Amino acid sequence: MSPAVARSGAALALRPVDESGVDDALRLAAIVFHDHPADEIRERHRELLLRCERFGAYDGDRLVGFLAALPLSLSVPGGELPCAGVTFVCVLPTHRRRGVLTALMGELWRAGARQGRPLAALWAADAAIYGRFGFAFATSGMTVEIDSDRPLGLRVEADPRPLRLLEGPDAREVVAPLHERSRAARAGRPRRDGWWWGTLVLPEQDEEDDELGPPLVVVLGDVDAEEPPAGYAVYRTRPGDDDAGSPGLVQVQEFEADGPGAAAALWRYLADIDLTTRVRCWAVPEDDPLPLMASDPGQVRVTQTFGCLWLRLADVRQALLARAWAAPVDLVLQVHDGVLRGNAGRFRLTVGADSAVTYEASDDPADLTLDVRELAACYLGDARLTRFVRAGLATEHRPGAARALDAALRTEHLPFTLDEF
C-alpha cells in the first residue's frame, strides 16, 4: 500500500489490516455507526471481514480509517464480472475531512487494477458520500405489503404443484439452483456460496428485528423432480400483540418465481398463514408483477421504492466489452472521470449487428458527453440516459444519441440486488 496520507502536518500510515486487526475494525465500526450488535451478529460480521481484502489507515498504532472489499462475482447483462463488494467503510470522527477515505479508496482502485477487477459496488449508509467517488445507484427495488386479514385475490391462476416447507439450513441445496438461474435473468446479483447462504441469507437470528422467528423456506414443486423448484420464498414470522395493537406479520426476505402461476401460489400461501394479518416483502424488483396481479389494488400496496446497489465502473472499457447489448450502436462518448483518469477521454463505442463490441480512443466529435457516474447508473439496465440528458447531467451533441445508447443498454428485466453485504 502507499505509505502515508497527510493529516494536519502529521502522517497516517496506510497498510493492510491483518486478521489480528479485525476486532479493531469492528470496534471502529461500532463507534462510527453507533451500533453494538449482539454476540451472534458480531461474529457474523467478523466472518464477513475475514473473507475480505482489508485496508486500514493508522494514526500510530490506532486504526482510524477502514475499508473492506468482499470479492464478488456480479451478474451483468449477458454474463458476470469480478466486483469489489465495498463494506464497513468508516473513519473515526476525530479524523474526518482529512483525506482518509480518499486515500483508502485509492488503495481499493489500485488493488482492483492489479487483480483485473472492473467493478466495485456497495450499499451506502450515507448516500451523500459516494457520488464524488464515481458510484451511482444501478439497481432499484420496492417494498410491497399485503393486507392478509382476508383472502388474497389474484387475477392469475395459481400453479397447482405442491408446496413444501423447509427449515432454513436444509433449504439451500433445493433453492440455490433457482436462485442461480435468476441471476442470469436479472443483473446486479452476487454469486452465493455455502457460507453466503448460511450466514447472510438463512441465519437463525434476523439482524434487524430480534422479534422475528427463525427462517422458513416454502418451495413450490414436486419433491422428486429433477428440475429446480418453480419458486420459493424465504420468510420469518412475528406474532401479533393485541395489547400493543401490533398485527401478526409475515416478513418475506426473499422471493423467487419462474412465472406468474408460481408467484400466485407462493403469495397466496404467504397471505394465508394463520395468526397473521400482514405480509411485508422489503424488496422486490420494480417490475415485479404482484401489484398488477392483485384483484383489489388496495390489498397489495407499494409502500416505498428505493435505490439498492451503488455501482462504480473502475475499468469502463473492460466493463462495456463484457456486457451483452440489446441493439447495434455506433457513438463517440466523451467520458469524464475525476478519480480514475484512465477512464476519461473520448471513445467510440461500436456494437455490431453480430454483437461484436469495440471501445477505442477517438478524435471524432463527441455524440454524447457524460460522467462515469451516469454511465454506471445505466450500465446494468436500470436508468435511462435520456433522463440524465433532460436533467442536465449529460449532454447530447447529436440528436437521438442518448436514445440510441438506451436502446443498446436495454435489458428484458430490470436489474435487482437483494443481497446486502
Automatic annotation (TrEMBL):
<keyword id="KW-0808">Transferase</keyword>
<comment type="similarity">
    <text>Belongs to the acetyltransferase Eis family.</text>
</comment>
<dbReference type="InterPro" id="IPR036527">
    <property type="entry name" value="SCP2_sterol-bd_dom_sf"/>
</dbReference>
<dbReference type="GO" id="GO:0030649">
    <property type="term" value="P:aminoglycoside antibiotic catabolic process"/>
</dbReference>
<dbReference type="InterPro" id="IPR016181">
    <property type="entry name" value="Acyl_CoA_acyltransferase"/>
</dbReference>
<dbReference type="InterPro" id="IPR041380">
    <property type="entry name" value="Acetyltransf_17"/>
</dbReference>
<dbReference type="InterPro" id="IPR000182">
    <property type="entry name" value="GNAT_dom"/>
</dbReference>
<dbReference type="Pfam" id="PF17668">
    <property type="entry name" value="Acetyltransf_17"/>
</dbReference>
<dbReference type="Pfam" id="PF13530">
    <property type="entry name" value="SCP2_2"/>
</dbReference>
<feature type="binding site">
    <location>
        <begin position="89"/>
        <end position="91"/>
    </location>
    <ligand>
        <name>acetyl-CoA</name>
    </ligand>
</feature>
<dbReference type="InterPro" id="IPR051554">
    <property type="entry name" value="Acetyltransferase_Eis"/>
</dbReference>
<keyword id="KW-0012">Acyltransferase</keyword>
<dbReference type="Pfam" id="PF13527">
    <property type="entry name" value="Acetyltransf_9"/>
</dbReference>
<protein>
    <submittedName>
        <fullName>Predicted acetyltransferase</fullName>
    </submittedName>
</protein>
<dbReference type="InterPro" id="IPR025559">
    <property type="entry name" value="Eis_dom"/>
</dbReference>
<dbReference type="GO" id="GO:0034069">
    <property type="term" value="F:aminoglycoside N-acetyltransferase activity"/>
</dbReference>
<feature type="active site" description="Proton donor">
    <location>
        <position position="130"/>
    </location>
</feature>
<feature type="binding site">
    <location>
        <begin position="97"/>
        <end position="102"/>
    </location>
    <ligand>
        <name>acetyl-CoA</name>
    </ligand>
</feature>
<comment type="subunit">
    <text>Homohexamer; trimer of dimers.</text>
</comment>
<dbReference type="InterPro" id="IPR022902">
    <property type="entry name" value="NAcTrfase_Eis"/>
</dbReference>
<feature type="active site" description="Proton acceptor; via carboxylate">
    <location>
        <position position="421"/>
    </location>
</feature>
<feature type="domain" description="N-acetyltransferase">
    <location>
        <begin position="12"/>
        <end position="157"/>
    </location>
</feature>
